[in-house]
């Protein structure tokens, strides 16, 4: 329906040609508050324009939708009690927050208060039900409608109207097909059979005399006693409902407030708690039994360890006494071992001198950088293929060098990285990790072979000589000088150089027994005492003190006596002598 038009008016609605398509199912005198289910408002304004007349209903349309020819006088329609007028210019098209309330003369409180519809000129409210007020209210046919509007000053009563449901005008069973404008501040009532409205400022003229109606035969529908019993029955049903509601409320209050009523639930709760406590107690008892078994196991293990410690202490005491008694023997064995090592070193030096006497290396007079071995010159460096005439002498010289290097590796106790096999002029050298394709054996002869393999073999031989020089503590200036480096090695060893390289090295130390006595440490006759504290760690060695600073840590003094067993040292010395 066009609820929001520029000039709302009822002129077209009052046209004499208008006929509603639907008819109401309720007679005017049968309309009661129990039939009222909804209310909506249309064309809300705070003040109607002065030039617009108040619409009036059509003269030939009755309340029930028929032509206005029903007999009998009609009561005048109840007027609107008051419509609030607001100072200032009228506000015609502003949207407001609106709600309404329904009242009755015999009831102090409002029968119903609707929800607030925000910012609307044509508000539609939710449906409601007044049956909860009982027959005393739902059988009424009069009510008061108050419409409240939220203006700038607050909530204000916009409309108050006393309505008789029997005087309403029927609009139709639905408002979808209604195409006529309504008056300003029009109130539309939704009853069980359709929609109605009221024309506040219109007094219905007396209807014309009805035409003569053919008298119909009288039929008996219900007697007065039947209607009276029906009314009493309705009242009794309402009283029974009220009594049932009050009893239900009283029973609920009693069940909630009386402690004895909740005793079964309390008993069940306590039983559940008891079962929980019993299960917890059982679990704790099992855990306690497990801990007892573990305690017994630990006690047994502790006793076993204590017995083992006592046995170890006795063994340590016995061993300590043996060590103290074996100290003189250790001194004698140490002196004998030193003498034996000196003799071995002197014998090594003599053997190396004799070896260089057997294979003498001399420099050529015409070329001081070229040397010969056993009067066979060896070109240095050997980087180019030699002629056929000198190939035999060069191969023999390389064979002598291979023999000399092979013997020196034994006398100096140096395992060569590249093993040499001396076979005279057909000697060869082995490289197990070479990346060169072919066999891992490289020839040290110059005839009937590939030259790059000979050159690589000479390079490997020079690396072995470099290893021997490093053993006696001599640096190698040029690894390509084969005979020159060997001559340097012989000169150093013959003059007694090389430091203590030719001396026999002692065997690796055996693990020494550790004796714990009063948190002190003694290693090979040296007393060490470690004191951990905030200032650091101190170590005392027979009059010497060394302090290692530490940022953190605290501890107690601990000394460990470590002494060498003479019987073990004597056995090692005998094995070396053999």
From TrEMBL:
<dbReference type="GO" id="GO:0000323">
    <property type="term" value="C:lytic vacuole"/>
</dbReference>
<keyword id="KW-0175">Coiled coil</keyword>
<feature type="region of interest" description="Disordered">
    <location>
        <begin position="540"/>
        <end position="559"/>
    </location>
</feature>
<feature type="region of interest" description="Disordered">
    <location>
        <begin position="1"/>
        <end position="26"/>
    </location>
</feature>
<feature type="region of interest" description="Disordered">
    <location>
        <begin position="44"/>
        <end position="89"/>
    </location>
</feature>
<dbReference type="GO" id="GO:0005768">
    <property type="term" value="C:endosome"/>
</dbReference>
<dbReference type="GO" id="GO:0032991">
    <property type="term" value="C:protein-containing complex"/>
</dbReference>
<feature type="compositionally biased region" description="Polar residues">
    <location>
        <begin position="1"/>
        <end position="15"/>
    </location>
</feature>
<comment type="similarity">
    <text>Belongs to the ATG14 family.</text>
</comment>
<protein>
    <recommendedName>
        <fullName>Autophagy-related protein 14</fullName>
    </recommendedName>
</protein>
<dbReference type="GO" id="GO:0000149">
    <property type="term" value="F:SNARE binding"/>
</dbReference>
<dbReference type="InterPro" id="IPR018791">
    <property type="entry name" value="UV_resistance/autophagy_Atg14"/>
</dbReference>
<dbReference type="GO" id="GO:0035493">
    <property type="term" value="P:SNARE complex assembly"/>
</dbReference>
<dbReference type="Pfam" id="PF10186">
    <property type="entry name" value="ATG14"/>
</dbReference>
